[in-house]
Amino acid sequence: MPKTYIIGDVHGCIDELQELIQQLAPGAYDQLIFIGDLIDRGPDSSGVVRQVVQWSKQLNVKLILGNHEEKFLRYVQHIKDGSGFDNQMKRICKCIDPLILGQNWFKI
Ligand SMILES: [Mn+2]
């Protein structure tokens, strides 16, 4: 009978994840469901993502976005559309006249 394994909060812990999957030894009809937070905090987020992508080619893998993946995707979108904090600050700095700053603003 096929089994369903539900795994959450891997948080970049590649060694522990590989050990877990090795112990579970899922078969072709089993299902691995990752319920979010593959990334952040631990030592190797990109390694975890690469490993899960690799498993998804051989095994029945389903992925649910966690808040850490959502945060990362928001960051990527900010970089793409130039709406990130750094880009906003650059635009503000470009449009503020340094002379106005000198005359009308004061430091606190
Ligand atoms: Mn988490």
Task: Tell me what you see in this structure.
The chain is mainly α and 108 residues long. It has two domains: 64 residues, no CATH class; 42 residues, no CATH class. It has five helices and three strands; from the N terminus they run βαβαβααα. The radius of gyration is 22 Å and the shape is elongated. Bound molecules: manganese (II) ion.
Rounded to the nearest angstrom, the radius of gyration is 22 Å
Oligomer designation = single chain
Task: Characterize the largest beta sheet: strand count, sense, and whether it forms a barrel.
Answer: 3 strands, parallel
Instruction: List bound small molecules.
Output: manganese (II) ion
Spatial order of the strands forming the largest sheet: 1-2-3
State the order of secondary-structure elements, H for helix, E for strand: EHEHEHHH
N- and C-termini, Cα separation: 69 Å
Number of strands: 3
Domains counted in the coordinates: how many? 2
The percent range for helix content is 40-55%
Strand content: 5-15%
Molecular shape: elongated
List the helices and strands and how they pair.
Layout: E1 4-7, H1 14-24, E2 31-34, H2 45-58, E3 60-63, H3 67-81, H4 85-95, H5 98-104
Parallel strand pairs: 1-2, 2-3
Descriptive labels:
108 residues; mainly alpha; 2 domains; 3-stranded parallel beta sheet; 5 helices; binds manganese (II) ion
Could you write a compact summary of the structure shown?
With 108 residues, the chain is mostly helical. The chain is built from five helices and three strands, in the order E-H-E-H-E-H-H-H.
